[in-house]
Amino acid sequence: MGWGNIYKRRVRVFAVALIIYFDYKALQQREKWVNKSKKASLWEKAHERNARRALNLIVDLEGLWVKLGQYLSTRADVLPEAYTRLLKQLQDSLPPRSLKEVCQTIEKELGKTMDDLFLDFDKVPLATASIAQVHRATLSDGQEVVVKVQHDGIKAVILEDLKNAKSIVDWIAWAEPQYNFHPMIDEWCKEAPKELDFNHEAENTQKVSRNLHCNKRSDDSKLANHVDVLIPEVIQSTEKVLILEYMDGVRLNDAESLQALGVDKQKLVEEITRAYAHQIYVDGFFNGDPHPGNFLVSKEPPHRPILLDFGLTKLLSSSLKQALAKMFLAAAEGDHVALLAAFAEMGLKFRLDVPEQAMEVTSVFFRSATPANEALENMKMLSEQRSKNLKVIQEKMKLNEKEVKRFNPVDAFPSDIVIFGRVLNLLRGLSATMNVRIVYMDIMRPFAESVLQCNLNRGPALNPRWIYDTPIHSDVEAKLRQLLVELGNAEKILGIQVCAYKDGEVIIDTAAGVLGKYDPRPVQPDSLFSVFSVTKGICAGLVHWLVDNGKLKLEDNIANIWPEFGSNGKDQIKVHHVLNHTSGLHNAMSGINQEDPFLMTDWDKCLKRIATSAPETAPGHEQLYHYLSFGWLCGGIIERASGRRFQELLEEVLVRPLKIDGELYVGIPPGVESRLATLTIDTSDLNKLSHVGNHSDLPTTFQPQKMAQLATTLPAIFNSLYARRAIIPAANGHCSARALARYYAALAEGGRVPPPHYSSMPTLGSHPHIPKFPSQQTVKKQKSRKRTCLDDDGPGPTQNSNSSIQNGYGRDGEGNVYIQVPSDNSCSIDDISSDNRNIKLFHNPRVHDAFMGVGEYENLTYPNGMFGLGFKRSYSTNEELIGFGHSGIGGSTGFCNIEHKFAMAVTLNKMSFGTVTAKIIHLICSELNIPVPHEISRLVETGSTSQLEILRKPLIN
């Protein structure tokens, strides 16, 4: 191709692109002055004339533009009908090249004459495409074949077209910044030239055929992920000629022939989708060009799909394949945490915190394919979704309307997933073209799960690194690790952390397993686990700190501190009633799960509702577990008595003095998602609840049958960031075992903070408690723009959409957490030395009695109750009171033994009814000659045959 032709080609491309662009821009202005009834007609006419302009240009230029047109013709799910209808002509065939040119190429490439090569060669091609045309032929040995012959000079045309396409994309990104197609065109420029070497295509064809077992006639069909498709066998190849086995089939756009054959179009497209799911998730090697022209339907029953043209293929690394599988499954499960982890693994980085929008976009990405006749409604939905997401970005980044259009929330986009996205879009377009509805979540899920299955099943027996590589602190820790391996091999553990202190020193700090069912990353010492009601013990510690610092009295009427609380017969409820679970509000707001589980994520609304609730029993008359209401009751008391926000006080009073920054939260901040463990259920334990009857000593919402129902929904709710970021002081603590154990180690010694813990890496307390995202100011500097639209502290610690978060952690001008202690007696952060020596959280010498509700505090508790003041009492087997702590549903726990100055914590993500935790505690206490808590001893010694008897006891979680 000469320079003159290249120049003319470029001018034509840009001229037509500008004409179409300005046509639409003019119509946008014109429609403002047109009657509403005429607008639809104006747009239809505009789409018709511009689609025809595009078609005429593509037919004249051919080359790469044909591929673009074929791609657009399949997007009936998002493009106007005029475009898909007219561009569909490109799926059939282009004007053929001369037979003379074809024969010359064949003879030059194969080194033989046509007569030597073929007994017969059809002069009329079966199809002519952008790069090559295909002829049917008979080889000299009588085999029926098809011969794919590359157009002469097409390489120069394709490379020039790529340059022009890239220039157009650059211009669009400048003129309409919200439409940035750079990642797509960059990947296309990298991959498209590979299609020009038919040796490459031959290798790809053979590899995909082997991966899908297309040529095997074994019992593969019985396998769960077997794919029933056909791929032609490769006979011979050179750079410009490819000879394949001939397969007699019908094109997908030949509706009459498909109907005559009785082809089930729904089943056909589903099988094609399964074939691509297998290629992507199982093989990590897939065809990147699944437009309708690259498929046939076999004329022989059962009319299997025939897959063609493997010139454009993509090879995925093992890590990227896993990340794509995790992304898919996270979208299917609505798991924001796993989704963000998957994005991080594939190299997709955001400039701001937009997890909800990321989930919505991903869900749209994998949405069910709809028939073409629903395309208009689908386009409307996508447009509304995009406008909604832009509004969120605008509010978070404080941008004006012009700036938000130019702001790209993505900081880094991995090119490897561009072709993956193109394949999904083409498959969706194929479904729309065939007028069938395809549920991708259902079809592709088994294949995505299979990617992670080998990692999920790699317990200790198969994975030598199942226990994270950290120092062994003691003989008992070595024995503990042996027990964990046994439990892991029995599939009772998914991921776990265990930490213990003795006499103020760490004697155990072990992490093992994986972060989630679909997250094979290892649990590390700094991983964060959802610990549910373990949070109550943390919340109780804050209340006692306020009492210790003179901000509150246990005998205070709550209504005197919190005036709104005094309504509906609650004026006599005191602080100690709440801590002792005797306020009578055990069922307050219990219907929130049925009404809307995510209501509990709205902190201010929940405080208002708990303040207007009515008690069921008189205060102090009955001890009934306040499994959810406890947190809002204590939270309201804490905020009213201190004049501070709950999270501010938590960080000031516990996190920073203990030096556990970044490893203990009640409501996580943005930026810690990569360290979160994902919850799952031990179904074998859950099934046992169906045999347990109700008990009068439990709230109605905490009966076994209700608990079984609750347990099945908890992972779905608490794996979402809506819940994880919420302030729910009864149930939403996120911490590492080493942070929780350090808290109880301090409580065991009356509040004295233990020496720093440095043995496990990363060091405890080394994480920033509130991670920072790149601010808009940084982004603008990267863009060489001088305007500043945001203060230096960036987007701040926004944790959810409700108002309480807006007043969350305070910050100074440097973005650090701002600390101000309201009491002269409190442990000011300024007083904390580098090694925490002589720092005490509490000054009351009888604080242990206060925690357990004994001694002078005994009259504030229910006689012989299982709770003290905020903590669950711990008794030895001879019924001696030895300590206190709190467990959570699923098995996580933290507790201490006062006499032995012993504290330990267990955090795990495979939720059960405590057998795993009990065995761990029993081993450690026995090895250290520390009294085993009675409830632990009972659970372990009765054995599995008496599990139901154990479950009939009240479940304190």
Commentary on this structure:
By secondary structure, the chain is an alpha+beta fold. It is built from 36 helices and 25 strands. Helices cover 44% and strands 11% of the residues. A hairpin with a 5-residue loop joins strand 22 and strand 23. It starts with a helix and ends in a 6-residue tail after the last helix. Among the domains are: 3-94 and 157-189, no CATH class; 318-456, no CATH class; 475-521 and 846-951, no CATH class. Residues 775-834 and 944-956 have low confidence and may be disordered. Helix 1 (3-30) runs parallel beside helix 7 (154-175) and helix 8 (182-191) packs across helix 17 (416-433). It has a 7-stranded antiparallel β-sheet, sandwiched between helices.
